[in-house]
Design a protein that fits this description.
There is one protein chain. With 180 residues, the protein is of the alpha/beta class. A 7-stranded mixed β-sheet has the order 1-6-7-5-4-2-3. The chain is globular. The N and C termini lie far apart (45 Å). 34% of the residues are buried. Bound molecules: zinc ion. Zinc ion binds next to helix 4. The site of zinc ion (ZN) has 6 residues, from helix 4.
């Protein structure tokens, strides 16, 4: 059984960014996630960064938009590339509070984003990995190669608060469903 359809290799301490920078940008993504939660959306937030500048920030808004496509990652990519002739984001880093789903990972690779940083691991995805082949569970310091493009991955930045926000949201939602 081939677990990874995308060829993977591991990087050897090639980090040019600092841990503090990653935590700083993840805090901004977390602030977006909290805004989503306050609007009864699943609390996931993302920011897109180039040269240490935040170019776009967004949160999940599937309920308000009535579409499963309104994930935070898709929204930050679209807000930068829409109307631009150059849609390639090869000098950009995307920060997101939860490990991207397959749709968003596909969009991140298609947009040629150079670096992905995420907070919490998607526990549901681990179950998928156990059941099916070809689902990519992302690891820290992983590089995904897709044709001529390489995406470096840093996982687990502010994992605890990113994960706690989601767990808390679902717990409260279950409680309110039990009461109704
Ligand atoms: Zn997604």
């Amino acid at each position: 059984m081939q677990r990874h359809k995308i060829k993977t290799i591991f990087s050897l301490n090639m980090k040019t960014h600092t841990h503090n920078q990653d935590e700083h940008f993840m805090q901004l993504a977390l602030a977006q996630a909290k805004m989503a939660g306050a609007q009864n959306e699943i609390p996931i937030g993302a920011v897109l960064v180039k040269d240490n500048q935040v170019l776009a920030s967004a949160h999940n808004s599937c309920e308000a938009d009535h579409t499963p496509l309104s994930h935070a990652e898709i929204k930050v990519i679209q807000s930068i590339t829409r109307g631009q002739s150059n849609w390639r984001l090869n000098e950009h880093s995307l920060y997101v509070t939860l490990e991207p789903c397959l749709m968003c990972l596909g969009a991140i690779l298609q947009a040629r984003v150079s670096r992905l940083v995420f907070g919490a691991y998607d526990q549901k995805k681990k179950e998928l990995v156990a059941d099916r082949s070809g689902i990519v569970g992302l690891n820290d310091q992983q590089i995904l190669h897709d044709n001529n493009h390489a995406l470096s991955v840093t996982a687990g930045v502010l994992e605890e608060p990113c994960s706690a926000l989601l767990k808390d949201f679902f717990k409260k939602r279950r409680q309110s469903q039990d009461q109704s």
